[in-house]
Model the fold of this input.
Amino acid sequence: MRRVLVVTVLTALALGVAVSGMSLAAAPRSVTRTRVERVPRFGHVFLIIGENTSLSQDTARKTPYLVSHLKPHGAWLTDYFGIHGGSLSDYVAMTSGQFQRCDANDAFPYNVNTGKPICAQRIDNLFHQLDRAHISWTEWNESMPNPCAFFDTGTDWAKNIYTTHHNPAVYYDDIEGDRYSENFHQAPKRECIHRVIGTGTTGPNDMSAFDAALGKGHMAHFNMVIPNGCQQGHDPCGANRLRQFDAFLRREVPRIEASPSFKTNGLILITYDEWGDSTPHNHRVAFLALGPQVHPGVYRHGRFSHYSLLRTLEDGFGITHHLRHAATAPPINQIWKH
Done:
């Protein structure tokens, strides 16, 4: 099997192949590893984010593709936690190692009428770290009406909901632009226009641009993939919301693995921003890593969080300066083959 990182959804079933030499019926085994491994060097990483789902809600009945077809062949963490329980605060936490009060309120980055900043932040972040390390990145946002958009659009019935507070990159001044100056109506930075982009049109569930780039192998080294509000499972858009994200994974993961960009060191990371609204006291969310670098199994030891995810990404991309709480968070370093 090719190299994959955090929670991924391999469509081995659709491809008709076994993963890592195991049959799809194989049960995941519990793994206890006493030796702490280093985080390997990453190639192309695909981090896919679902919405508002506790670990206990991911079951073979509710999310069959994730649990029955991916979990047995990946590293599944049983003690991985969201940070705050608000969308923006968790997205910002996993990309900057902290969050602020405005993040907890899911505020817009700018005032819709004046353009003045509300939650735009002068804070270092993973995207800027990758820039300094000369590592390419793209944040893919499904149903985004234009590159670097920072206002909500779409509807449930049209299945094209774009939500700004699910898009962390537009909140960072060194990515989107410095709106603290008097010239707050200035255009976004060129980088934001070229790297914070849509996955296709605003048509329902359109991933055509993302899929085309995959087919050509024109992918950045770090890809943050944010489905729209329907496919993330945030809104019940005419179907069971948990099944919506499961269907997204079933469709897109095989395309990622088939991409020339994936090759032998690709990683797919899948997790959720926060726990489910129906279980507010259960802060565990699913975290799965799949790929050639990953030692499959259910990992019941160690306590990890979105800060650990950030720390692991920094380590895997060779970034030695760790942001805020990522500096003290344990890296996810027991799941790798060496």
About this structure: The longest strand covers residues 45-50. Residues 1-26 have pLDDT under 50 and may be disordered. The first helix runs from residue 12 to 15. The chain has one domain: 38-327.
